[in-house]
Design goal:
heterotrimer, A mainly alpha, B alpha/beta, C mainly alpha, B: alpha/beta, Rossmann fold, 2 domains, six-stranded mixed β-sheet, 16 helices, 22 strands, about 30% helix, about 25% strand, globular, C: mainly alpha
Chain lengths: ~350, ~500, ~300
Amino acid sequence: MIRLIPRVENSTAMILLSPLLALTLTAISAYLIFVSILVDIEVSSVFYTLFVEPLTDSYYLSELLVKAAPLMIIALGLSIGFRAGVWNIGAEGQYVIGGIAGSAVGLYFYDVEGFWIIPLMALAGILGGMFYAGIAAFLKTRYQVNEILVTLMLTYVAVLFLSAMLQGPLRNPSGFNFPESRLFHDSALMPIIWQGTRVHIGLIIAVLLSFVAWFGIKKHIFGMQIKISGSAPRAAKFAGFNDNKTVWYSLLISGGLAGLAGLFEAAGPAGQLTPGLPQFYGFTAIIVAFLARLHPIGVLFSSLLIALSYVGGENVQIDYDLPKSITQIFQGMLLFYFLACDILIKYKVVLFKTIR
Amino acid sequence: MNYQLQINNITKSYGDLKANDDVSLNIKPSSIHALLGENGAGKSTLVKVIYGSLLPDRGEMKWLGKSYSPKNPFDAREQGIAMVFQHFSLFESLTVEENIVLGLDGVRLDENFTEKIIKYSKQYGLDINPHQVVGDLSVGARQRVEIIRCLMQNPKLLIMDEPTSVLTPQEVSDLFITLRKLADDGCSILYISHKLEEVRQICSVATILRGGKLVENCIPQEHTQQELAEMMIGKKLIQLARSNINSGEDIFSINNLSRKSDDMFGVDLKSISLSVMKGSIVGIAGVAGNGQDELMELLIGEITSPPDTLSFKGNDIGNLNSHQRRELSMFFIPEERLGHGAVPDMGLNENMLLSRPQKSEMTSYGVIDWQNVETLTQKVISDFDVQTFSTKMLAKSLSGGNLQKFMVGRELTQNPELLIVAQPTWGVDAGSANNIHQALIALADQGSAILIISQDLDEILSLCEQIHVLSEGSLSTAVDMTNKGLEKISQLMVGSED
Amino acid sequence: MNEGLLIDIIIGISIASVPLIFAAIGELVVERSGVLNLGVEGMMIVGALLGFVVQFHTGSPFLAVLAALLGGMAIASIFAFLTQFLLTNQVATGLALTLFGLGFSAFVGRGYTEETIQLITSVHIPILSDIPYVGPLLFSYNPLVYLAFFMVYLVWWFLFKTKQGLVLRAIGDNHDAAHAIGHKVIRYRVMAILFGGAMAGIGGAFLSLVQVPIWGEDMTAGRGWIALGLVVFSSWQPFRVIFGAILFGGITILQLHAQGFDIRISAQYLSMLPYLATIIILVSLRMRLKNKTNRTVPNCLGRIFHSTT
């Protein structure tokens, strides 16, 4: 009989091993599933295309980084909130609103040049995301309405709003009635840091943010506030932390970061505001955050991993005519295994022989 | 000799810890049998084995002469063994009769059942209303529900775990009448309690466990409380004595503090007033559920009140939060350890940060100096004899007594000028409790003021020179202890019955 | 506006509310036992897919619904295993379930996006269905609609009139006490979770088998999440689920008809209505309760149960 015995201290060995274990189990399951479904395709070459190929080619590598940046930024914000027990599931909506707000600023100044335009757009993006997440914070602190439902409902609203904006006020006047904005002018585009690719300065900002977040969580009392609020709300009050403030901080930070990511996406790889802005980064970032065990530096690595699965997934789609949803299945499975293996950190698995 | 229950050589281990080590025990019919021991001595484990919640590693039991090895509580109940838990197994959102039927097997809820409940309640003098929602009941009433739930199984053995820790003195007498009646009717009682005076009153025989082993079987009436306590901990208790009583100067006062409770099940506080002098220990006695939680929240600052309702060192502080109060040198120890006074999933070092005042060595401008935190944690662990493997040990892995010593140490190392503590030794083994009492007395002798809220009358009587009683949200004035003080306290505690 | 249109609207509302009723009544039982399963959307879409696929290949509505039911249960069992035996975080696991369900159904359904199927036909009860007005309004639905309302009654009866239902409610109230008395907390919760999966599966199948005869990746469009809101809105009382579902169904239908009424709001804003309404209704519920402690929430909702034997 197998029993779970709580550990006295969290096992540091397992903190490193369990993600690897989860990864291995996912790979094995994925292999088995593919083998059974994909009858006439060489499964190991699918794996190669999915995981290894993107790393060998500089173009694919750059695309990996392009995708990793928004995931990193959003996941950092989410991991802070999740630690506090504030579940911002609607980061996708805040991402969209931030993208709209920032793009609107850029479009407003479309005939003006200046180095200050991009930072202003970024600020607008952050504020837009913060405002949108703030709605949920207000409803939660004032009326105790669950933030999961509010942020989620608002996500659907945000996507519809984007569509309305692109067919209305933000539509390109000389664009043949397509629901798209003007192409952003030079001052409104994110500076590219890797010539010849779409990798822009957002990546550097993302990495910097993860170190800032790491510092904030580990070294600053704010990190303790978040951790304690999420773990034992009464103890948080005992320590003098204001419950409501924690909720507001969590949502404003995650909303603001999501909004920033939205603006980076619109002003970076896209170069304009289109209906294609929402790419589920907001939802995938949830997986990234959990895979990182809500740790800022972990987010760095897990966002790269998930980005890899995106790029690899696209290649698999093209090369083998398999749908995009393969990536989603893989990500879902990874999360399942990850959560399952997580208990090894808190519990010891012991085999009992019943003596009687 | 016909024993009702015979327990032979029961052993049960959790990993390396031997909770029960070769324990044997015999219970006679119609007897009230005490099971004594500190927290961690193995009483709960033994009782769970009897009740079928745990399977022993070795050993055997005989019930009514026949071999007995229950696989779960259903088996135990079926055979006639019932248990009233210390922490009631009640469901707050359900009614009394729904709660009762959940504890019985093979019975459905209908009018016959409700009538049966009323019959039992009358027969044993346990007054309850079957249709009330349990969440609305007082603690004494809830216990009556638990007891009736057991009695309706017509048990031959009733196990009671710390039954009187939540009762007023009057309720205790009523309970004893019920228990004696039960014993006379042929139901034996296994009575677990640390209230030694009560044990001497009602139990005919006592078994004492220490460190998982059986150390003594004796007749309680033949020993003093002191002797019984010493048998339980295995060494002599240090006598408590104040060397330096108060200086006459008020340092803290509560002024007409009232508050309506937000919670439907809560107690409203009515115009509470009290003052504490430097170097004195003031106690607030009273049974749980009379407003202690609400009062503590206001004293800590988790909930604020109008500024002038609380004054400390001449300042109005009612509107300050806990953090700000600590800056003024007020410190607190709440009743609930895990989840309130300490975060269960965090290590002791991280838990130190819960009560750091602004100007402490632990943080500067919000940045944590982990090295310093580590040093301070070590200091608390060694100064207060906290048994732990490391400074990173999770709070939930410590025993109650050790965690309490840690919490007391955490606050005392800050050199509080005022310490407010609720239930300082609840659930703590006698040895650690003694240490904590010593530490509190030492603190007062140095000139600090202490306010203790406790349900344990013995504790209040032994520590405090000024005693108030909290009943239904109202605080009495200081009780004159020179003339029939104990009676006055009992009367005040009762107030108006439920 | 003529009576014909009014009847169409009422019938439309009833039909729109059915998937929500199924999903919500299932989740209600789960939450009553103290578990929060955010995977409703994932379970619904899997049900929608399996129902469609089986109907497409076999033409048998019965098998289609059965497949949807079993499919919902199957993926719910992953959630049950992780949260009840491996003690994982319920929020994260529920989300993973939704993501996995969406991906899985999109993957398996990729070959069916161009296909259509035979819809489940409505009942025709002799005499009753032919009564003018009342006939179409009450007696001419397809069997699943009646099943939905029946399930609500069944759940009410189970929770409040049987001992097992009482035990389930007790577990949601205080799982430690229930365990101490000897009730099998984990067993009840697993059963509740599987039931929730079955109901969500049928709810999803209703979408693809009755409402629209096609398959699309985003068919459920957030209904699973709305169902979660419905459970809160109903204060965990079964009959109120119907009320809430009709309210939301109503808003969805009215939004579709609004264009017919020549209301000059662009389509996107109208489409936002159901989602905004969910939020507004949840807020107004809280505003009503502001001065009373919420006694109806199952006390143990979302908390992990550690058995200590």
